[in-house]
Amino acid sequence: MHGSRGLGTRRSLSITLMRAAIYHGAGRITLEDVPTPEIGDGELLVRIHACGLCGSDLMQWYQDPRAPVVLGHEPVGTVAEAGEGAKFAVGTRVFVHHHVPCFDCPLCRAGRHTLCDRFKSTRIDPGGLAEFIRVPAENVRADVLTLPDDVDDITGTLIEPVACVVRGQRQAGVGPGSRVAVVGAGSMGLLEIQVARALGAGAVVALEPDEARRAGAARVGAMTPDGLTADAVKEAFAGELADQVFVCTHDHGAIAEALHMAGPGGVVQLFAPTRPGEHVPLDLGAIFFREVTLQSTYSAGPNDTRAALDLLAAGDVQADAVISHRLPLERAAEAYRIAANGEALKVVVEVSGERT
C-alpha cells in the first residue's frame, strides 16, 4: 500500500480562479478561467502538474453528451490544501484515481470493483486538464497514492492506464509461460506488451499494420510478424496459437480475426470499446469447439493502481516507450487534436498550476 501518514492540514489559498481546458463537444476545447474548487472535511485540493490524455477522452460519442466538461483522469500533482481528517500533508506529490468503489456491495465483495455503482458515480472535480482538482473524501481514503521520488510526474500519469492493463491481464490469466498476442500497438498495446512481460509471459507477439508502431512494439520486447492473422501468430509461436489475445483497437476486422488467434481454452479480451449500437460480425462457430472465452475489461480498482505504481517504480514499464508528446495546458486543444487524429502515440498535458 502506498500512502501518506499523518493528518493533513488546510492551507488557505488566495487563488479564486484557475485555468481549465473546457471540452465543448465535437472536438472543440477552449482554455478558460473557472472557479477554483473549495474543499471540505477529508478532501484534498491538488495542484495538477501533468495529466495524460486517454483514448476515452477522444471518443466524441462518449464525451459529447457530457459537454461542457473538463477532460482528464490520469492526473499527478501536489497537495495544495488538505481538509480536516485527510491523511496527506500539504506538499505531498500524489496520483489521484478518479473512481473508487464502495467495497461493500456484492460486486465489490466478488472483487469486481469497477462494476460497482459507486465506482461509476465517483469522480474528481472538475477534471485533470485544470490547474487544481478537488478530490472527494472517499477517493482520498481509497485511491490517492503518494509518488516515490524515483517516479517523476510524467511517468506517474501512466499509473491509471497501466492499472487498467494490469486488471485486464489478471482477469485473462496472464502468468509465467503465457503466450500473449496484442492486436494494435498504440499506446495501450505497448503497455499490454510491457505488463505481460512483467507478469512472466513466455512470449509476446504484436499484430500491427503501421511500421513505426511495429518498431515500437519490438523495442519493448514483442515479436512483430507481418500480417494481422492467426497464421502470423502461429508463425511467431512455432505453430501454436495464443493463450491470451488483447484487442487494443476498435477495428471490426481486427476484432473478428482475433477470435482465430486464441488456442484451445484461450481468452480473447476486448480492451477498446466500439460505439454502442455498432455490430461486429463474428464467427462464433470458430471458437466454440476450442472453448475460447470472449471478455471485456473496464477501468481499474485500488489494487490495480498500486500494482501499476509498483511496476512503474521498478522500471518494468517504460514511460519513454509510450509517451510521444508533452504539451502545456495552453495548447490543450492541439494536444487533443494530435491525439485524436493519430499524429501522437500518447499525449501528456503539462499543467503549470502557478497562479497569483
What does this protein structure show overall?
Helix content is 28%, strand content 24%. α6 packs across α7 and α6 crosses α12. It has 13 helices and 15 strands. It is α/β, with parallel strands linked by helices and 356 residues long. Strands 3, 5, 6, 7, 8, 14 and 15 form a seven-stranded mixed β-sheet that branches.
Bulk shape: globular
Structural class: alpha/beta
Low-confidence stretches: 1-11
- Our measurement of the CA-to-CA distance between the termini, rounded to an integer number of angstroms, reads 36 Å
| Mean pLDDT figure | 94
Largest sheet: 7 strands, mixed
Share of residues in strands: 15-25%
For this entry, what is the oligomeric state of its chains?
A: single chain
What order do the helices and strands follow? EEEHEEEHHEHEHHEHEHHEHEHEHEHE
Number of strands: 15
**Helix percentage range:** 25-40%
Output the number of helix runs: 13
Measured on Cα atoms, how large is the radius of gyration? 20 Å
Report a brief summary of the structure.
The protein has 356 residues and is of the alpha/beta class. The chain has helices spanning 60-63, 106-109, 117-121, 137-143, 153-156, 159-172, 187-198, 211-219, 230-236, 252-258, 285-288, 302-313, 332-340, and strands at 17-25, 28-35, 44-52, 69-70, 75-82, 93-96, 132-135, 144-146, 179-183, 203-207, 242-247, 262-270, 293-296, 325-328, 347-350.
